[in-house]
Structure formats: structure tokens, C-alpha cells
Amino acid sequence: MARTIPLRALLVPLALTPLPAAACTLCRSDAAEAIRARLVAPDLAWNLCVTAIPLLLLLAIIAAVARERA
Amino acid sequence: MIRRHRPLLSAGLALGIGMGGFVDGILLHQILQLHNMLSARIANTDYVGAKVNMVWDGIFHAGVWIITAIGILLLWRAGRMRDADMGGRLLGGAALMGWGLFNLVEGAIDHHLLQLHHVYEPMGLSIWDHVFLLWGAAMLLGGWTVARARQ
Question: Which terms are listed as keywords in the entry (chain A) (predicted)?
Fold first, then answer.
């Protein structure tokens, strides 16, 4: 009786092959280093704050409306 | 009286803010590519700048996702309250008001005050940023009218 090899047995070694993650543009390459360097520049905290400010203000409005009054 | 409306009003506001944020992020940032989150400060015309702006767009989207999730929780909470007004007009009006609020707050702070980006970035601060605010004000007023007309 012929035995068939499960497809999973063929795919697992393929998945474990140490190929570089080509889709990850933030992982390697000179461009990736430049992107990371720009992201963690001294203005990182400022950028984070200004991105969050409008959203926090809108959350405060929601909280004020949602708050139950006795 | 207002106490009965607060649960659904707050849920609708949160959902409207979330939907408005996603329309801005998906339509203006990604599909039309008119601007990105920090495109007035970090030029998005080269590869590195575009990728950095993409990350900040993602952080903005994460925040908008959280507000939408809060809206779903508030809607669930309102549905469990026995005395809460659960009218469709109130929910629709509140969602319109939320979307309008998003445009007004985000437009005033990010476009005009901090100048992080503008609606049509190549023009800088332009008529389109004023249209964005007017659009928000119109939605806020329209939502208010719809919500009040439910009775």
C-alpha cells in the first residue's frame, strides 16, 4: 500500500527556511535604517503628542457626554 | 430628560468620530494620497519620508480604532439600560455630530494650529482646509437637527 506524504510535512521545512523577509521594508537595507533613524529622531515624543492631542480632546468630549449625572 | 439620551448620544458621537477618522485616513491619506499625518513637517515625496509618514498614519489609525471600539462598548452599554433612548434618529444624528466634531477638532488643531498637514499638501494651508472645517460644522449642525427631530 503506497503511503502519501502529508502536504504539511512538505510545507513546514519550507516555512522554517531562513529566507529574509523581503516584505519587511523596516527590517534591513539602507532605506530601512534611514526610516528607523527618522522615526526615532529627537522629535519622536513631540510627533507622538501632536498626533494624540486631537484624539484625546475628542475622547474627553465623549467622556463628558457619557458621564451620568445624579 | 437629557439623562435618557446620554448613553446613545455618547455612543453615536464616538462611532461618528471613529468613522470620520477612518474616512480621513483611508480616503484622504491612503486612496487619494492628498496628505499624510505629518506631511507638512516630513515631506512625503521621497521613499523614506513616505514610509515615515505611513507609520504616523498607522498610529493615527490605531487611535481612531480605539475610539471606534469605545463607541461599540458605549452602544452595548446603552442597549442594556432599561430607560435609555434607543431611537435610530438619535444614533444617526449623534454619529453625524461625531463626524463633524472630528473634522472641526482635527482640522482646527492639525491643519490650522499645529500645521502638521493640510488637505491638499502641495498647496499648503489653502481653501480646502477651510472647506474641511465648514464640512465639519455642517455635519455637526445637521446631526444636531436630526437628533432633535426624532421626537
Answer: Membrane, Signal, Transmembrane, Transmembrane helix
Work out the angle between the directed axes of helices B88-106 and A44-66 (0-180°, nearest 10).
Answer: 150
Any idea where the domains of chain A sit in the sequence?
9-66
Smallest CA–CA distance from B36 into chain A, residue: A51
Instruction: Show Cβ contacts of residue B21 under 8 Å, excluding neighbours closer than 6 positions.
Output: A55, B60, B61, B63, B64, B67, B68, B102, B106
Q: Does B74 contact A at CB distance below 8 Å?
A: yes
All three cell numbers of A34? 534611514
Check if the beta carbon of residue B38 is closer than 8 Å to that of residue B117: yes
Q: Scanning the structure block, which residue is given the C-alpha cell 500645521?
A: B115
Window B:94-113, CB contacts with A under 8 Å: 101-102, 105-106, 109-110
Distant-in-sequence, close-in-space partners of A39: CB < 8 Å, separation ≥ 6: B52, B55
| pLDDT in 10s for each residue of chain A, 70 residues | 566 778 878 787 777 776 655 667 677 788 888 999 999 999 999 999 999 999 999 999 999 999 875 4
